[in-house]
């Protein structure tokens, strides 16, 4: 029986489909290939990696370490995180502790009794701006020296790289570029030195490649083989809805399931399961088990696009602010709102925006990214796609939500006349 996944990553009997992606990733691991997993938000990248690590652990051929760098402020934090997450690897953990012998001596025999967070604080105290590359080299050497090869899954690496690159005004600085270059060079060196013993899988809720392109550091991605993680097809999404309906004894006809998928347009796994969850709750409140087309329409309009659905979709905005900063985000917001209000962003409108923001940058010098660079980010991270010389939203759900949130009274900065539809900024 397929159970609801909620908002967190899933594995085991909550994991649905993705067999071909698991096979492809396992082949890469066995071939010693470092992988950069690319996809838009909520596609299930973390779930895919977690499920791969679970299955590899069952085969007892590989060890695995999963780290999340979303909260990391610098390379020292990243190395300390690798250390504490490698604790279950007995031989490896012993070597890691050995490399911190002087620091851990103060903790005495009680170090192993500490909570994970406290262990990390102790280890972090021994890593600083002057020694982190050497400490990190020792940690990678420990990972590579174990009885079994190690899969090192690094989530949210782009968030850390973004922090290294930018100052408090969200601008890439020479110092930030140097710091990011040093960290990525160190990671690349260890990936090359320990190939076959340590296989890295990188992922994140924003794209690494556009960020590196902005900073002129694209060469650091050369050792990673990109694997593009696609949305579900309508057939797969409908099958997931059928399995969920069966598990919860909900009546969802084939036509209802297809209607749900077509409203989403892009069948992102989390959105498919969120739609079912909200529909199920709606039926349960009415003490019913059979869904009608009217139920689907009401849930989409009032739950998926309403206040209860905003927390999830607002994360799309938050990630754009994080990566594009205070200069780039308002421009991206303008482009996305114009696309949502009009249904697509035509090529001539793109030309007008290019001219407008180029002139604004020339006048103000605010560090506004080019429209071409912003559109590249929006495409790479799955907000927009090219279509017949213009752009449109990939996800109808995100398009409808963006229009309802920002479309009212929206007036494009390149047009003095208000356009109908829309959402104000």
Q: How would you summarize what this structure contains?
A:
This protein has 425 residues and is an alpha/beta fold.
3D architecture notes:
The chain has 425 residues and is α/β, with parallel strands linked by helices. It has three domains: 18-228, P-loop containing nucleotide triphosphate hydrolases (Rossmann fold), CATH 3.40.50; 234-304, Orthogonal Bundle (Helicase, Ruva Protein, domain 3), CATH 1.10.8; 310-406, Arc Repressor Mutant, subunit A. It is built from 18 helices and seven strands. It has a five-stranded parallel β-sheet, with helices on both faces. The protein has a two-stranded antiparallel sheet with strand order 6-7. A hairpin with a 2-residue loop joins β6 (384-387) and β7 (390-393). The two termini are 44 Å apart. Residues 417-425 have low confidence and may be disordered.
Instruction: Give a quick account of the main beta sheet: strands, pairing sense, barrel closure.
Output: 5 strands, parallel
What would the average pLDDT be, to the nearest integer?
89
Task: Report the C-alpha radius of gyration, rounded.
Answer: 24 Å
Q: What CATH architecture of the largest domain do you see? A: 3-Layer(aba) Sandwich
User: Given this structure, which CATH class of the largest domain is correct?
Assistant: Alpha Beta
* Terminus-to-terminus distance: 44 Å
Number of domains: 3
- Give the overall shape, derived from the CA principal axes: globular
Number of strands: 7
Query: Runs with pLDDT <50, length 5+?
Result: 417-425
Q: Helix coverage percent of residues? A: 55-70%
CATH topology of the largest domain: Rossmann fold
Structural class: alpha/beta
Count of alpha/pi helices: 18
Give, in spatial order, the strands making up the sheet with the most strands: 2-3-4-1-5
Strand content: 5-15%
Specify the CATH homologous superfamily of the largest domain: P-loop containing nucleotide triphosphate hydrolases
Order of helices and strands: HEHEHHHHHEHHEHEHHHHHHHEEH
């Amino acid at each position: 029986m397929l159970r609801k996944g909620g908002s967190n990553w899933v594995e085991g009997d909550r994991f649905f489909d993705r067999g071909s992606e698991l096979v492809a990733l396992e082949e890469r691991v066995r071939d010693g290939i470092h992988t950069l997993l690319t996809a838009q938000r909520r596609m299930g990248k973390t779930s895919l990696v977690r499920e791969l690590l679970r299955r590899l652990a069952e085969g007892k051929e590989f060890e695995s370490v999963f780290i999340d760098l979303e909260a990391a402020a610098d390379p020292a934090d990243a190395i300390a995180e690798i250390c504490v997450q490698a604790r279950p690897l007995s031989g490896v953990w012993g070597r890691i502790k050995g490399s911190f012998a002087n620091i851990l001596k103060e903790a005495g025999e009680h170090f192993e009794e500490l909570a994970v967070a406290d262990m990390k604080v102790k280890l972090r105290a021994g890593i600083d701006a002057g020694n982190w590359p050497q400490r990190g080299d020792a940690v990678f050497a420990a990972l590579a020296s174990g009885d079994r090869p190690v899969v090192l899954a690094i989530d949210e690496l782009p968030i850390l790289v973004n922090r290294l690159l930018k100052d408090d005004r969200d601008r890439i600085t020479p110092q930030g570029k140097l710091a990011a270059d040093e960290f990525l060079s160190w990671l690349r060196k260890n990936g090359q030195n320990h190939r076959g013993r340590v296989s890295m899988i990188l992922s994140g809720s924003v794209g690494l490649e556009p960020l590196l392109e902005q900073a002129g550091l694209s060469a650091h991605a050369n050792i990673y083989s990109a694997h593009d993680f696609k949305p579900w097809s309508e057939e797969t999404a409908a099958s997931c809805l059928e399995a969920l309906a069966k598990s919860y004894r909900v009546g969802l006809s084939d036509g209802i399931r297809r209607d749900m998928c077509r409203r989403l347009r892009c069948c992102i796994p989390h959105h498919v399961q969120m739609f079912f969850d909200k529909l199920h709750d709606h039926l349960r409140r009415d003490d019913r088990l059979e869904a009608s087309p009217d139920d689907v329409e009401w849930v989409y309009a009032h739950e998926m696009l309403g206040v209860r659905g905003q927390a999830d979709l607002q994360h799309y905005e938050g990630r754009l602010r994080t990566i594009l900063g205070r200069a780039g985000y308002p421009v991206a917001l303008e482009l996305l709102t114009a696309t949502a209000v009009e249904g697509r962003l035509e090529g001539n409108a793109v030309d007008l925006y290019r001219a407008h923001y180029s002139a604004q940058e020339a006048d103000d010098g605010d560090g506004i990214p080019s429209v071409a660079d912003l559109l590249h980010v929006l495409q790479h991270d799955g907000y927009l796609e090219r279509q017949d010389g213009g752009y449109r939203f990939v996800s109808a759900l995100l398009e409808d939500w963006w229009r309802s949130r920002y479309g009212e009274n929206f007036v494009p900065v390149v047009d003095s006349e208000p356009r109908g539809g829309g959402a104000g900024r």
